[in-house]
Design a protein that fits this description.
Structural class: alpha+beta
Shape: globular
Radius of gyration: 24 Å
């Protein structure tokens, strides 16, 4: 893991050598360790330690032209060649008259998201957690597969205008699917602290689902009241946010937020925001341009309130950056990676008791957009889908395909859990979302499966 002083030294060398009008350096360091298991046995232990230096330059003499080049070789010659390559690429780029400037230095508040125990967590410690899940699955005559990842990350951004920002963080993610002949169950956990991952608890969750979902019944597609676990809610949130909560899709009209600010577009129970400074998420106090992250509300009690900006889209729209830039070059524009949904007032047990007839959905997969502009998604249920009768989970059912306008579905939310869970964001563990469980009326299922 590259330390702050080493990163600063690299940046100073590049900045002093650059002949570009403006220069930006992004250094991303990642120490990742992964244990994979399948057929209830560990089959892979890998570790990777890498640092990437990404250089963006701006040439102003013949119209603003921008070039980006990167390297994972940190010797002086490689860094010089990467800088020269970025400048050469910029010379051949078309002019970008809408580009104004790289962002200047702004103060940000450091936020703790580094846990030393996670940084030190080794293969034997990961194996100890995995072995619990595998052993308990075999005891139940089931097969377990999954992965346990721990990572330590460092992000450093510096530019020729005086910006210098550095942050270190850790995260750990465990996920498992436990399968029988005609059933499966899932459990997952994301945390800054690898020591919080409880193999016994995760094994019990996945195994109970797999055992309970044996001999599933077939039900017909249609509209059902659904209880969505946090895994399922998170999948909807990721696919809702990615194409529409950024300023680029807002400005070009391709996202559902375009033309809708200050209008009610979901039910009043729905509030969604981005906050990179909240320590209950995977905190990152600045973006990949070194701009401090602001708390941005996208939906507040169902009303569209705002979108995420980076420096380019902010200058284009006459706004200021909210600190949601991704690494350049970035065709997707600014994107939130630290999402939160406002919790409700009920326990999950109370939400379940309020459903006379409906479906319990553990999670979704193979989710895709039918229309990002209209927030229409389609996907499949997976790893634990059950019938709810009289406020109780009664029988397992075969998986269903959903096709639903998510904004419209969020108008039919009947209850939200008061507890939330940290789940991976659209870009994996680079960010994270904190989401509740949710009950939605008349959720549309368009097809069924044979499993």
């Amino acid at each position: 893991m590259m330390d702050k002083d080493m990163g600063r030294g690299i940046c100073e060398k590049i900045l002093s050598a650059s002949k570009a009008d403006q220069t930006e350096i992004l250094i991303y360091s990642n120490d990742a360790k992964l244990t994979r298991f399948a057929d209830s046995e560990i089959h892979q232990n890998v570790a990777e330690s890498e640092s990437e230096v990404r250089i963006r330059v701006v040439l102003e003499a013949q119209g603003k032209r921008i070039g980006v080049a990167s390297t994972n070789q940190l010797d002086e010659r490689s860094l010089k060649e990467t800088l020269e390559r970025a400048i050469e690429l910029a010379r051949f780029q078309p002019e970008n008259p809408e580009f104004v400037s790289l962002p200047g230095p702004l103060p940000f508040k450091a936020v703790g998201s580094h846990v030393e125990r996670t940084a030190r967590f080794g293969a034997e410690e990961r194996a100890a957690v995995v072995s619990i899940v595998c052993r308990k699955a075999l005891e139940s005559k089931l097969i377990a597969s999954g992965a346990f990842l721990t990572a330590e990350r460092g992000i450093l951004v510096a530019n020729s205008l005086g910006t210098f920002a550095h942050h270190r963080g850790t995260c750990a993610e465990f996920s498992t699917v436990v399968m029988g002949d005609d059933s499966s169950g899932y459990a997952g956990y994301l945390s800054l602290d690898a020591g919080e991952i409880d193999g016994e608890k995760l094994a019990l969750e996945a195994i109970q689902k797999a055992l309970a979902s044996r001999n599933p019944l077939s039900v017909e597609p249609g509209k059902y009241t659904v209880f969505l676990e946090e895994y399922a809610v998170n999948e909807l949130l990721n696919y809702l946010a990615y194409p529409s909560f950024g300023a680029q899709s807002f400005l070009d009209g391709s996202g559902f937020m375009a033309g809708k600010l200050d209008q009610r577009i979901t039910g009043e129970k729905i509030s969604i925001w981005d906050d990179g400074n909240d320590p209950s998420g995977i905190a990152l106090p600045f973006d990949f341009e070194g701009v401090p992250k602001e708390k941005v509300f996208f939906l507040d009690e169902g009303t569209a309130k705002g979108v995420a900006y980076d420096s380019f889209t902010a200058n284009k729209a006459g706004k200021k950056s909210t600190g949601q830039a991704l690494p350049a070059p970035n065709p997707d524009g600014p994107t939130p990676i630290n999402l939160f949904m406002r919790p409700g007032k009920s326990s999950k047990e109370e939400l379940l008791e309020g459903i006379d007839k409906g479906l319990w959905i553990t999670r979704f997969h193979y989710v895709n957009h039918i229309s990002a502009k209209e927030s229409i998604l389609t996907g499949m249920t997976r790893d634990g889908t059950f019938l709810i009768e009289g406020g109780k989970v009664t029988r397992p059912i075969k998986n269903l395909r959903f096709t639903e306008n998510i904004l419209e579905a969020f108008k039919r939310v009947e209850g939200i859990s008061r507890k939330t869970k940290l789940e991976p964001g659209f870009f994996g563990i680079l960010g994270g979302n904190r989401v509740p469980a949710m009950v939605i009326r008349d959720f549309s299922f368009s097809g069924k499966t044979e499993f």
